[in-house]
Automatic annotation (TrEMBL), chain A:
Family as reported in the entry's similarity comment: Belongs to the leucine-binding protein family.
Span of the signal peptide: 1-22
Protein name: Amino acid/amide ABC transporter substrate-binding protein (HAAT family)
Leucine-binding protein domain span: 29-385
Keyword terms of this UniProt record: Signal
Record flagged with keyword Signal: yes
Residue ranges the record marks as coiled coil: none
TrEMBL record, chain B:
Molecular function GO terms recorded: branched-chain amino acid transmembrane transporter activity
Transmembrane spans: 27-44, 50-69, 76-95, 101-123, 130-148, 183-200, 236-259, 271-296, 316-335
InterPro entries: ABC_transp_permease (IPR001851), LivM-like (IPR043428)
Species name: Rhodovulum imhoffii
Protein name: Amino acid/amide ABC transporter membrane protein 2 (HAAT family)
Subcellular location: Cell membrane
Gene Ontology annotations for the cellular component aspect, listed alphabetically: plasma membrane
């Protein structure tokens, strides 16, 4: 009943407002509650604040105002479906659920409804194959790139030779955590290291037995695919067994300030991947001036500039750039979800463009095409400095081993195409 | 005034032993069915189907299943989530192995597989009771979830361990997959609910149900008067798991379309369904519906009122929702320890006398 009343009200308001431009709707399926909220809050703040900045500073995107509809999922797939159904009728242009589980739910649904899905560095890796996944994008990099970047970094550390080394993957026992296993196994046979994987069940507050196993097996390196409270617990447990922190590398979802700060000084030297650079970007000054100070921020403003805030803002920035590209292609500010998809497929991020947006070097340069929805697949390695309380980038963008990843992507996406009777496009 | 037997004369044994002996009650039941089958399918949209009706109907099946075991036979089970997972993974394996067979047959077969698994895990109930049995079923919950995570055969060796329901049709209409119409989803679940609730209602009124209740009320006495505890307990586990398995199969194939065992069928699911049964009322089919409605619909309603209606921040609303639902659970259980079904019974008694209570 409340929905119909609301819709009548909204309709009435729309009619009263006259022939104004329709809003560009960006639903934000966020999670500010539950065991994953620590990561969900800064990401969502960054995502929403960038759209607010567009509205306040630039008067919208190409003249059309952006409207963000927030919906709380608590990282729960059932609530995620509810949120999707509740928001898709509002003219949603793009979904970014920040959850691999919800992504798997939404891939068939958005493909049937014709709304693009952008899973930046998470979700289904083989969606990088645009020939099969018309509506799904995962640029600028995906899990398999991340796994390969981590191994490439270790190769560099060890003078190009990993044979005889023991590498253990500590992973969240879900679709998210299982994604890199196959890549790491392929790379193990290529580079000759011994690979072992240890699962941690949701939510990951109890890891005594896993770390006991690590203590017994004494791997040379531990790679972690964790999220939420699991990260903090793992870093604390690693400190408890005195595992050398510089040999402990987290994925890019395991490398935020709140993951390392609970362990205090003991977390010094912990490394993590990142798909975007961090630092004091000029765009943050604009956000403070136009969004935080007038009291329009999604959060309390304390997260501005943190790792996940920056990533959420980067996600919004890529969405805005895709919307602008779509407006350019179709010559109208009032774009639909299908036009948005065209914009995403024609997206090109150059260093000059990122500089113009006030975020020089926030991400790698990449361009999207009909075949390639996955971007360039590069990542950096950063290290936690507990003395100054900040992440320090150790490397520039490291490319991943596409020789190994590309056949895996083709194999997995073609299996999906076969199951769902999809004829590959772009030919 | 309402719910009166006056003027309702029974002239045959059949009409005397019918499920709804009071005419008013019977017509109310027909009216509910008429609205459910004749009106809602024409009005339903994707939101109402996916967020409200389909989860409500599926949880109602699971709650009826657990109510048979816990409410009617007195065996506490914390393995409901694990048994739902058995239903979901069975239907997935059947769907992908035999794509030409009708999906509805697969759902029923998945229920039967779950019934077999449930009977197997019911064996300890012959030796242990009460809290100890709860712990044994808890082991089933953790073992089954671990199994579906550990053995790649169950998820067809997919890279992520997710299972996704491919599209399956019946007479050219999609029943599973993303192109399924909202009304079709709803009608499939409604069909299963009506048939299963009818079966459950009649089972619990007959010999089998009476032997379950005898075991629940006092197992030694039941054994002395000739109820076979082995038979009664194992049939309760099998029938209950059959219902729960069908709920799990529909949950995966029709409702979500893709699941991951740890997240969808974890221990929280077992607790959720146990709470539905306790709040709804142990040993009552109506109570299973009431409990499912309470725990599925109330959070959605609160969310729509607080976020959609009042425009509150989503995190505040989500926290408040937990507090309100928790407070209401405590309130209802203090006001009526036998659940919503007992409140409904008392309301009916009052309505019979209304408006002249003395």
């Amino acid at each position: 009943m409340t929905k119909t009343t609301l819709m009548t009200l909204a309709l009435g308001a729309a009619l009263a407002a006259g022939p104004a431009l329709a809003d560009l709707v960006f639903p934000d399926l966020s999670y500010r509650t539950g065991p994953y909220a620590a990561g969900g809050i800064p990401f969502s703040d960054g995502y929403q604040d960038y759209f607010t900045l567009m509205n306040e500073r630039d008067g919208g995107i190409g003249g059309a105002k952006a409207r963000v509809i927030e919906c709380e999922t608590a990282y729960n797939t059932e609530k995620g479906v509810e949120c999707y159904e509740a928001t898709k009728g509002e003219g949603a242009l793009i979904y970014q659920p920040l959850s691999t589980g919800i992504t798997y739910q939404l891939i068939p649904k958005i493909s049937a409804d014709g709304i693009p899905l952008h899973t930046m560095g998470y979700g289904r890796t083989s969606a990088a194959n645009g020939k099969v996944f018309e509506w799904v994008f995962n640029y600028p990099a995906n899990y398999w790139n991340a796994a390969s970047v981590a191994i490439n970094y270790l190769l560099e550390e060890n003078g190009g030779n990993l044979s005889g080394k023991k590498i253990t993957l500590l992973y969240h026992n879900s679709a998210y955590g299982k994604e890199p296993i196959r890549t790491l196994e392929e790379l193990a046979s290529k580079h000759g290291y011994t690979f072992n994987s240890i699962p941690v069940d949701h939510p990951g507050q109890e890891q005594k037995s896993q770390w006991l196993q690590i203590r017994r097996e004494r791997p040379d390196y531990v790679i972690m695919w964790g999220w939420g409270v699991m990260n903090q617990v793992a870093i604390q447990e690693a400190a408890n067994i005195r595992f050398p922190m510089e040999n402990f590398i987290g994925a890019w979802w395991s490398g935020a300030e709140h993951d390392v700060s609970p362990a205090g000084q003991a977390a010094h030297g912990y490394k993590a991947l990142n798909m975007n650079r961090i630092g004091d970007l000029p765009v943050f000054d604009d956000i403070r001036q136009y969004v935080v100070e007038p009291g329009l921020a999604a959060g309390d403003g304390s997260n501005v500039g943190s790792v996940l805030y920056t990533r959420g803002m980067y996600a919004a920035m890529l969405a805005v750039e895709a919307a602008r590209t779509a407006q350019g292609i179709h010559g109208t500010p009032d774009i639909t979800a299908a036009m948005m998809r065209d914009g995403m497929e024609a997206l090109e991020m150059t260093n000059a463009r990122m500089e113009a947006l006030g975020a020089p070097g926030i991400g790698p340069e990449f361009s999207v095409s009909c075949e390639n929805h996955g971007g360039s697949g590069m990542g950096i390695v950063q290290q936690w400095d507990a003395n100054n309380g900040e992440w320090v980038a150790l490397t520039d963008y490291i490319p991943s081993d596409n020789e190994v990843i590309d056949p895996l992507i083709v194999q997995d996406s073609m299996a999906f195409a076969g199951e769902n009777n999809i004829t590959p496009r772009c030919e | 005034m309402f719910y009166r037997e006056a003027g309702d004369f029974k002239t045959s044994y059949l009409s005397d032993s019918q499920t709804f002996p009071i005419r008013f009650d019977r017509f109310r039941y027909y009216a509910v069915l008429a609205v459910a089958f004749g009106v809602i399918p024409f009005l339903i949209n994707d939101y109402w189907a996916s967020a409200v009706f389909v989860p409500f109907l599926i949880y109602a099946i699971a709650a009826i299943g657990l109510n048979i075991l816990t409410g009617y036979c007195g065996q506490v089970s914390l393995g409901t989530g694990g048994f739902m997972a058995v239903g979901a993974y069975s239907v997935y394996k059947l769907m992908t192995a035999f794509p030409d067979v009708n999906i509805l047959i697969h759902v029923v077969l998945a229920g039967m597989i779950t019934a077999a698994v449930g009977a197997l895990f019911g064996l300890p109930s012959l030796r242990i009771k009460g809290f100890y049995l709860a712990v044994a079923t808890l082991a089933a919950q953790f073992f089954l979830v671990w199994l579906f995570n550990k053995v790649p055969w169950f998820y067809n060796y997919s890279a992520s361990g997710q299972i996704s329901a491919p599209e399956r049709t019946l007479f050219g209409v999609a029943l599973t997959g993303p192109n399924t119409d909202a009304s079709v989803k709803y009608l499939v679940c409604l069909g299963f609910v009506v048939v299963l609730a009818w079966v459950a209602r009649n089972l619990t009124r007959g010999t089998v149900g009476r032997s379950w209740m005898a075991i629940r009320d006092m197992d030694i006495a039941a054994e002395i008067i000739g109820v076979n505890p082995l038979r009664a307990k194992l049939t309760a586990f099998a029938v209950s798991s059959f219902f729960v398995g069908i709920a799990g199969a529909l949950f995966f194939a029709v409702y979500l379309g893709a699941v991951e065992v740890g997240e969808a069928f974890g221990i929280q699911k077992s607790f959720l369904i146990l709470f539905m049964v306790i709040i709804g009322g142990l040993g009552s089919i109506f109570g299973s519906f009431a409990g499912a409605a309470f725990l599925v619909l109330l959070p959605v309603l609160l969310k729509n009122v607080l976020v959609g209606g009042l425009g509150w921040p989503t995190d505040l609303a989500a926290h408040l929702e937990l507090m309100v639902v928790g407070a209401l659970i405590i309130f209802f259980l203090i006001a009526e320890p036998h659940g919503l079904a007992q409140l409904w019974r008392i309301a009916k008694e009052k309505l019979r006398l209304w408006p002249f209570p003395h």
